[in-house]
Each structure stands twice: as structure tokens, then as C-alpha cells.
Design a protein that fits this description.
Layout: H1 2-9, H2 13-40, H3 49-68, H4 78-100, H5 102-105, H6 110-129, H7 141-168, H8 173-198, H9 211-272, H10 282-295, E1 300-308, H11 310-317, H12 319-337, E2 341-347, E3 350-356, H13 360-374, E4 378-379, E5 384-385, E6 389-397, H14 404-420, E7 426-428
Parallel strand pairs: 6-7
Antiparallel strand pairs: 1-3, 1-6, 2-3, 4-5
Length: 438
């Protein structure tokens, strides 16, 4: 046990951390490529998943080897070293291919897990065999079996998390990202433990001192370093490319979301407001009154306003002038009522005003101010209107009813009653003198 702990302290920790970061980045990128292909139905994306993961495993192995024996120069057989890289790339590609095809995967992950674990183990022990100055080293059968079991179990866990990531891609991106991160960490841990078990009893032989040997070893080291640099650069380029795609997709989704919100607001505005005057319409009025009824403690006065003489404007000057007049009247109504009341247009030249007043006298005073302002002179584009007036009928909640339809009907009956009696006046609904039509 002490021997193993001493071995752990033998590593160059900074180089180990760098190797883990690069490997995790490569694994994360490979899982993202797999997800992108599944979500966007782009079959070309997963083709890069296997090579990216293989490069990550290969770089992790050789960087950790250098971190383990940082006080020695390791001599490699370049052919076997490159063969281990090819094994890692092809094996991971086959593993992803088997995993993505449901017929091969079926309802379990045993076959793709076997491919991934065999690939990682083959790459590792090929890399060990490529060392020329490894000295007398061996790995017991127990350690080999244990390393294979570890990498197989972690491969199963990695594949399970990857499958969850693919399933959750269209449902919840947060959980998909969590699963992708979990798969990355799981695979990295499995490869690291396998590496530790495979190098637990290894001693490096001293480096040859001949100039020829030195020149040859330098050439091998330069080739290996160049290969690792290229692979690391490719991984980082892929990571930057993926970040750019994610950023672009996020920006596009955000713009689409804002546009959708804007369209919904416009639709709500269209469905609940009058297109001419921008006042709330009948639907908005009904919803507003129902909301007020639920929490109203004081009496509500519902004023039904109908313009006197408006038909003459439309008949003589046309509907365009009539619309212009309605816009001016709506502004006057809002100015008179202010923030203390609610103004709506329910059709034609009919308006509804809802106010909360303490007494009927206060409601009458407000109605008279409305009549006075409506009777003003209007400077329009084609003419001047100075003959307009209004008739106002008022119903009271809860005195005259507890539902919107009843209160509006009684205010309407009161308005027509005063219109028949001479117009340009205001009156409350009266149960005795006014009868609701059946």
C-alpha cells in the first residue's frame, strides 16, 4: 500500500492535471458531436465522435506516462506508438457506431462497452509495449484483469449516461448537459485507473549515451511530441468550433424567443384591444370586470355611453372621418377618467366606463364631465364637428347584478331609455321604470 502511495507522489501533478483537462475536453467534445448528430439528424457529426475520443484517450496515456517518469527520457518505438493511436481511433469509432445503431445495441450496452474497454486496454498495453527503455517490468494477471473490469464497468456507466443525454436532448438541455459531463468524468476516471493499474510495477532503464542513440531518440521524441501537439490542437479547435455553434444556436434561440414573445404580445393586443382606438374591447372588459368582482368591496359603476349624432358623421363625411372622430373621443374619455377608471370600446360608437366611486352623486358628477367633454367641437381633417352629444346609462355592482352580462344589459337599457327621452343626459338603471327585454 505504501509502495502505491509513493508511486502516486512520483507523478508530475501539473502535467497529470493538464492531461486530464485535455482528455476531458476531448471526451466532452465527442459526446457533444454524438448528441448533435442525434438531435439535428446530421449523420456526419457522430463520425467525428470516435476519432475525437480515441485521440483523447491516446493523449491522456502518453502525457500521464511522461508525468509518471518525468525524471527520465522515455524512448518509444514510433511504429507501435502510432499503431496504438490508430487502434484508439478505429476502436472508439466502432464503439460509437455500435452504440448508435439500435440493432447492434439492442436493449443493453454490453457490446459497445466491450468494444470501448477493449480499445482503451489495447491502446494502453500497446503504448506500454512501445517503450524501448522500460527495463524489467511486468503486470500481474490480477492487475490486468482488474484494469479490464474497471474500464468495462466505467464504459457501461459512460454509455448509460450518453444514452440518457440523447434521450433528454429534446426535452431538457440542462439534464442533457449534466449527463454529458457525467459521461466525460466517468470515462476519464476509468482510463486513469486502468493506466495506474497497468503501470504500477514499472522501472525505467537508464538512457543510452551514444550520440547515435541520442539523435535517434530525439527524433522519436520530436515525432511523438509533434503528433500530440497536432492532436491537442485539433481537439481545441473542435472545442472552439463547438462553442461557436452553441453560442450561435443560443443566440438564435434567444432571438426566436424574443420574437415569439413580441408576437404573442401583439396577438394579445389584437385580440383584447380595439384596432382603431387601442382601447380594451368587449373581451378585455369582461375579463377585467370578472377580476374586479372577485376582490371588489365598494360599489362599481358601469357607464354605457352611446354617441348622439354619430351616424350623421358617417353618412355625410364617410367612415374615415367617423374613425378619426372616434379616436379623438376615446382620448378625451381616457383623459377625463384618468387612472382611477377603465375605458373600453365595445363596438361602433358605444363605450363602457367602469369606475369605483363612494356615492351616486360622485358618479353623476363624473358622467356630466364626460358629457361636457364629448359635446366639445372637433377639428377633423375634412370638417369641424360641433353637434355631437352622448347618452349615458349606469348600472351598479352589486346593486343591479353580480355578473357582467346582467350589468352591461341594464346599463344598455338605461342608456336607450334616456336616449328616447331626449338624449345628452345620464340616468341610473331603475327596476321599476325600465324593463329588461326578454
Amino acid at each position: 500500500m505504501n509502495f502505491k502511495l509513493n508511486m502516486l507522489f512520483n507523478y508530475d501533478i501539473s502535467l497529470v492535471l493538464l492531461a486530464i483537462i485535455i482528455a476531458c475536453l476531448a471526451f466532452y467534445v465527442s459526446f457533444w458531436l454524438c448528441k448533435a448528430g442525434a438531435r439535428k439528424k446530421h449523420n456526419c457529426w457522430p463520425l467525428f465522435s470516435g476519432p475525437t475520443m480515441g485521440c483523447g484517450i491516446w493523449v491522456l496515456h502518453y502525457m500521464v506516462m511522461q508525468a509518471h517518469h518525468h525524471s527520465h527520457i522515455i524512448n518509444y518505438n514510433i511504429k507501435i506508438t502510432l499503431a496504438s493511436l490508430i487502434v484508439a481511433i478505429i476502436g472508439c469509432s466502432l464503439g460509437f457506431g455500435c452504440f448508435l445503431f439500435k440493432r447492434l445495441r439492442k436493449n443493453h450496452y454490453i457490446l459497445p462497452a466491450l468494444i470501448f474497454s477493449a480499445t482503451a486496454a489495447s491502446m494502453h498495453y500497446l503504448g506500454m509495449a512501445a517503450i524501448l527503455n522500460a527495463g524489467d517490468w511486468y503486470v500481474s494477471n490480477a492487475y490486468i484483469a482488474l484494469s479490464l473490469i474497471v474500464i468495462f464497468i466505467t464504459s457501461l456507466g459512460m454509455l448509460r449516461l450518453t444514452h440518457l443525454m440523447l434521450v433528454m436532448t429534446s426535452k431538457n438541455d440542462i439534464y442533457a448537459n449534466f449527463c454529458r459531463l457525467g459521461a466525460t468524468v466517468t470515462l476519464c476516471i476509468g482510463v486513469a485507473i486502468m493506466h495506474f493499474l497497468g503501470t504500477s510495477k514499472m522501472n525505467m532503464a537508464p538512457m543510452g549515451s551514444s550520440p547515435l542513440a541520442m539523435s535517434h531518440d530525439d527524433h522519436i521524441e520530436n515525432t511523438l511530441a509533434m503528433t500530440m501537439t497536432i492532436l491537442i490542437a485539433l481537439v481545441f479547435m473542435l472545442a472552439i468550433f463547438i462553442w461557436f455553434i452553441n453560442f450561435k444556436e443560443h443566440l438564435s434561440n434567444e432571438l426566436l424567443k424574443r420574437e415569439l414573445i413580441s408576437k404573442n404580445l401583439q396577438l394579445k393586443q389584437m385580440t383584447q384591444h380595439d384596432s382603431l382606438t387601442q382601447l380594451p374591447n368587449r373581451l378585455y372588459l369582461q375579463n377585467h370586470l370578472n377580476t374586479l368582482f372577485d376582490k371588489q368591496l365598494q360599489p362599481l359603476f358601469i357607464m354605457f355611453i352611446d354617441l348622439d349624432g354619430f351616424k350623421r358623421v358617417n353618412d355625410v363625411w364617410g367612415h374615415a372621418i367617423g374613425d378619426e372622430l372616434l379616436v379623438k373621443i376615446s382620448k378625451k374619455l381616457r383623459n377625463v377618467v384618468g387612472n382611477g377608471g377603465f375605458v373600453a370600446r365595445i363596438g361602433g360608437d358605444e363605450f363602457i366606463i367602469v369606475v369605483c366611486e363612494q356615492t351616486k352623486e360622485a358618479a353623476i358628477q363624473l358622467a356630466n364631465r364626460l358629457l361636457s367633454r364629448i359635446s366639445d367641437s372637433y377639428e377633423l381633417s375634412a370638417t369641424t364637428i360641433d353637434f355631437l352629444s352622448a347618452s349615458i346609462g349606469i348600472s351598479i355592482y352589486p346593486e343591479h347584478g353580480h355578473d357582467v352580462a346582467t350589468l352591461l344589459k341594464k346599463a344598455d337599457v338605461a342608456m336607450y331609455y334616456i336616449k328616447d327621452k331626449g338624449k345628452n343626459n345620464v340616468i341610473f338603471y331603475d327596476e321599476v321604470t325600465m324593463v329588461l327585454p326578454t
